[in-house]
Amino acid sequence: MWDTIAGAGSGEVLPERNLSGKYELGKLLGYGAFGKVYHARNVETGQGVAIKSVSKQKVIKGGHVAHIKREISIMRQLRHPHIIKLFEVLATKTKIYFVMELAKGGELFAKVAKGRFSEDLSRRYFQHLIPAVRYCHSRGVFHRDLKPENLLLDENWNLKVSDFGLSAVKDQIRPDGRLHTLCGTPAYVAPEILAKKGYDGAKVDVWSCGVILFVLNAGYLPFNDRNLMALYRKIYRGEFRFPKWTPPALARLLSRLLDTNPETRITLDEIVNDPWFKKGYKEVKFHEEFEDLKSDRNDGDRFINAFDLISFSPGFNLTGLFTDSDSKENSNEVFVSKESPERVIEKIEAAATTVEDVAVAGGKRKEWGLTLEGQDGNFVIELDVHRLTRNLVVVEVRSRENGVEPIHEIWKNKIRPMISGLIYRPDADGPISGLL
């Protein structure tokens, strides 16, 4: 999805030159699966970024809402020096904007398309790629579409993995322990995917890494044919030849990477211990900083990542981006407050007790939560308060009804107006920030 996010563009400029008063948008850099990517500048810091503009209508009509939400969920987990970083998500009524790290060096594909790399340069980029993929796997993320077009270069010519649009997570693994979705780019797809019997996402990524390494060294694909079925036969049988200049140590590693049997194919742990790979290798050391994920052990505060909010919060989130927040079918709501959790619960409870037929459920008040019930048992409203940052909390309201009057009307028209002072509305008239 994040393909072609850096490089020479057509010169087209996004009509909205200023976004949220924070980013000044510039030239078109390229096209993605769901929209266009532009160069932009943070007006406060001067930092260059890439911003992808996506049409909500196009995403909804194309049935890609779950796809985008999964990709956002995946990208917010990944903070590695060799993975493109997603900074924040902004939104207006018609557009969603993804603010990402800018890779000024463009695609690795554009470089290798001009000619094969030297052994040392091939090794350098492979030493960038493997730790990034290994990191993804340690987080339960399998890319499934690794190829030079999805590997970008920064201004220092360091490799950055991008485009997690086809990625899978462990939750998608079926009871047989395998993934079953057919995906990937034909020339880089692993033979076990073609067998359609399920596959291990980690082993599939290793195969793709092998094809990439072959391309860097050879300057062309190991498996190539104009006829797609003929191409798949070559992949399934593992029919390829090394160019004559391939060093023996590299040939041995490639043979293990492009092993058609996933059970005997080399693993990522084995790759980092391979003699060819280890030459001059220095393990990348970095510190993941998620300030809003840190727990305060003194008061039990629960900090959640800002992108966790995206997964369920109307207004700040992708759920709210794709649904009508006033819909009567939507009985859930989330809002943000600058008040303390205790104060939020206190005010909501005080407001609820003034509403006829609404009562605080006996014995069901939680430390940072509250359950309200209809006196006739015709509805239940559950509220949970989570700390988002040291200054903000997020309040999740869930409800279910058993009676005639819609529960959302009780909350929306009777209780909510009395607590309007609790609700924090940043950028009320403009784009909504992902709060990172």
UniProtKB/TrEMBL annotation:
Gene3D superfamilies: Kinase associated domain 1, KA1, Transferase(Phosphotransferase) domain 1. Pfam families: NAF, Pkinase. Its cofactor is Mn(2+). Keywords: ATP-binding, Kinase, Manganese, Nucleotide-binding, Serine/threonine-protein kinase, Transferase. One of its GO terms (molecular function) is ATP binding. The keyword Manganese applies. It catalyses: L-seryl-[protein] + ATP = O-phospho-L-seryl-[protein] + ADP + H(+); L-threonyl-[protein] + ATP = O-phospho-L-threonyl-[protein] + ADP + H(+). Residues 299-323 form the NAF domain. PROSITE patterns: NAF, PROTEIN_KINASE_ATP, PROTEIN_KINASE_DOM, PROTEIN_KINASE_ST. ATP binds at residue 52. Residues 23-277 form the Protein kinase domain. GO terms for biological process: signal transduction. Its EC number is 2.7.11.1. Belongs to the protein kinase superfamily. CAMK Ser/Thr protein kinase family. SNF1 subfamily. This is non-specific serine/threonine protein kinase. It comes from Nepenthes gracilis.
